[in-house]
């Protein structure tokens, strides 16, 4: 596979080291065989005494040690190469996933992404730690052995030349079959991981709808599929090694027969030569057989490599940023010029939005559920890439500014802010600069109305929350997000008001906090409450992904029938 070979080429130094170790291992094997045969020959045929063969024995030990050492060196280099490649791969994947976090997380299951990141990358390991060193060894060493065999007794060499090719031919035939199977196995594995994580995350929903039993069945099926795919791969692997064993045994048998006939009937070779052939031939075939099993693991890796390549190639259009700096001192002028965005072909799309948001303005985005309000916030936030049009910041395309500077300006309080697993203090601290003091964190929490909640938690600010700890309610999470904003002091605040009716106290806290934050910033709110709507400097009224009207509440009441209908239907309460 081109991708894997290219990765291997980047590790040229390590490849050279593996080649050198292979040559030295080959030399050690040849030396060892000679010494072994010499010792046997001298003791049994020539009747040498022990002291006469002692130097040979010592050299034999040296050869054995050298062989072990060089094999170890080769293996170690392979493992190092594998870990470097895996590190590179994971880095590129992470880079890709984080390049456009929003769109990356919109596409595909997150469980599947975890599986790609962890397991699929691990599958690559054996290609470098096992396959490459083995291919190098199994090419170099057998050739070295064959040269020696030809020099000593050409007929054995000829037998080998006729029988050995069956091994690679056979391997290739089987290899082609296993490749698809290995890919299938990986797909099944990813599907299984994805299914499992999805189900785990949605367990409450599934229980409520009485669907957990069905899901159990689905997981079971998914895991059985994976097992079956694994068994098929293993079956091929086992029959593969059986066949290789058979071929090499047959060849060695032939060589033994030929040597025996020569020794006993024709008596035209020495015991030394015959015995050397019988020692070298199995070494030769062992190396070829090792290649066979390495081939099998290599195939698995190639399946994984293909999968990774696909994942890395999958296009996510990144949100473009530039190099110009953007100061945080005052809120910028934000202009949307014919902005369009689509979740994909035939999916929901925002179309041709024109709007200007001046510094310190209070903007309310209003519209029915599903009209595209939250999507518009993503677009303004710069979390997704536009399919058309441009967003200008202080008169220049946003893509000219530095990404860091832009996001530094911004706090986005979504309807369901994400809590990382960590303490509540840590969760607030990610809003601010890296070394926010405990005091600053506590002040921010107080302003966001979290003091009472934190007081009720067992370990106060050090209580673990998020995935590994206690869960928080939607309103509480938004307050954490607001505390993050107090720590950050952004100049633009994007706020997706909760649709569900909050209790009065929470509502008051949220409103007061946003009000205080708005002293230093432009606030763009997806508004559901009449209060927010009435107070807004400008309302953006969206329907079906289009901006139908913009203006103050009273103006829209008069000019837009649809707007009036929507607001009056819900009079006094929350506006959907
Ligand atoms: P609102 O906030 O106004 O209720 P949204 O902006 O959340 O609406 O969604 C607008 C439309 O986009 C909806 O029809 C929704 O189904 C669709 N949508 C939201 N997220 C995605 C997504 N990740 N992929 C495809 N469609 C989406
Ligand atoms: Mg929404």
TrEMBL record:
Example of a GO biological process term: cysteine transport
Bilayer topology term: Multi-pass membrane protein
Residue ranges occupied by any ABC transmembrane type-1 domain in the UniProt entry: 16-300
Domain ABC transporter: 334-569
GO cellular component, one term: plasma membrane
Domain of life the protein comes from: Bacteria
Keyword Kinase: no
TM segment ranges: 15-36, 56-74, 131-151, 157-176, 237-257
Cellular compartments annotated: Cell membrane
Pfam family of the protein (one): ABC_membrane
Keywords for this protein: ATP-binding, Membrane, Nucleotide-binding, Transmembrane, Transmembrane helix, Transport
Entry-linked InterPro entries: AAA+_ATPase, ABC1_TM_dom, ABC1_TM_sf, ABC_transporter-like_ATP-bd, ABC_transporter-like_CS, ABC_transptr_CydD, P-loop_NTPase, Type_1_exporter
UniProt keyword Amino-acid biosynthesis present: no
Any one GO molecular function term: ATP binding
Stored NCBIfam families: CydD
Name by which UniProt lists this protein: Thiol reductant ABC exporter subunit CydD
Originating organism: Oceanobacillus zhaokaii
């Amino acid at each position: 596979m081109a991708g894997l070979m290219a990765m291997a080429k980047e590790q040229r130094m390590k490849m050279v080291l593996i080649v050198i170790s292979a040559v030295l291992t080959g030399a050690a094997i040849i030396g060892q065989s000679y010494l072994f045969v010499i010792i046997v020959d001298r003791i049994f045929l020539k009747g040498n005494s022990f002291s006469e063969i002692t130097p040979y024995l010592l050299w034999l030990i040296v050869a054995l040690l050298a062989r072990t050492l060089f094999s170890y060196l080769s293996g170690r280099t392979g493992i190092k190469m594998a870990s470097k490649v895996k590190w590179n791969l994971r880095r590129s994947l992470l880079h890709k996933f984080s390049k456009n976090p929003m769109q990356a997380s919109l596409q595909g299951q997150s469980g599947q992404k975890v599986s790609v990141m962890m397991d699929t990358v691990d599958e690559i390991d054996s290609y470098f730690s096992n396959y490459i060193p083995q291919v190098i060894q199994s090419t170099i060493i057998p050739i070295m052995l064959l040269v020696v065999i030809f020099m000593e007794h050409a007929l054995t060499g000829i037998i080998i030349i006729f029988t050995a090719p069956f091994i690679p031919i056979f391997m290739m035939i089987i290899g082609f079959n296993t490749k698809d199977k290995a890919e299938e196995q990986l797909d099944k594995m990813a599907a299984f991981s994805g299914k499992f994580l999805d189900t785990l995350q949605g367990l409450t929903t599934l229980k409520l709808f009485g669907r957990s039993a069905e899901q159990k069945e689905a997981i079971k099926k998914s895991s059985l599929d994976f097992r079956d795919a694994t068994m098929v791969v293993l079956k091929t692997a086992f029959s593969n090694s059986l066949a290789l064993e058979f071929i090499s045994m047959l060849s060695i048998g032939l060589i033994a027969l030929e040597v025996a006939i020569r020794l006993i009937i024709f008596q035209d070779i020495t015991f030394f030569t015959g015995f050397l052939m019988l020692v070298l031939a199995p070494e030769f075939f062992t190396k070829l057989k090792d290649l066979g099993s390495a081939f099998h693991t290599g195939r698995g890796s190639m399946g994984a490599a293909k999968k990774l390549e696909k994942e890395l190639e999958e296009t996510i259009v990144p949100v473009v940023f530039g190099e110009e700096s953007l100061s945080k001192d005052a809120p910028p002028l934000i202009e949307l010029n014919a902005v369009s965005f689509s979740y994909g072909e035939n999916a929901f799309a925002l179309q041709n939005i024109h709007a200007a948001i001046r510094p310190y303005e209070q903007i309310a985005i209003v519209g029915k559920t599903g009209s595209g309000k939250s999507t518009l916030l993503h677009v303004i936030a710069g979390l997704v890439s536009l399919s058309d049009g441009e967003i200008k910041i202080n008169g220049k395309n946003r893509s000219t500014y530095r990404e860091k500077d832009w996001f530094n300006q911004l706090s986005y309080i979504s309807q369901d802010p994400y809590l990382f697993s960590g303490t509540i203090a840590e969760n607030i601290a990610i809003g601010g600069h890296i070394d926010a003091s405990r005091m600053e964190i506590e002040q921010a929490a107080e302003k966001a109305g979290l003091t009472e909640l934190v007081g009720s938690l067992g370990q106060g600010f050090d209580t673990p929350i998020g995935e590994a700890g206690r869960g928080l309610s939607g309103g509480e999470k938004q307050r954490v997000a607001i505390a993050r904003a107090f720590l950050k002091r952004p100049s633009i605040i994007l706020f997706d008001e909760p649709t569900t009716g909050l209790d009065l106290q929470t509502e008051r806290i949220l409103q007061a906090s946003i009000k205080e934050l708005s002293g230093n910033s432009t606030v763009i709110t997806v508004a559901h409450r009449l209060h927010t709507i009435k107070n807004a400097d400008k309302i953006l009224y969206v329907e079906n992904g289009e901006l139908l009207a913009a203006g103050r509440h009273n103006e829209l009441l008069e000019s837009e029938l649809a707007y009036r209908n929507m607001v009056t239907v819900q009079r006094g309460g929350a506006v959907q």
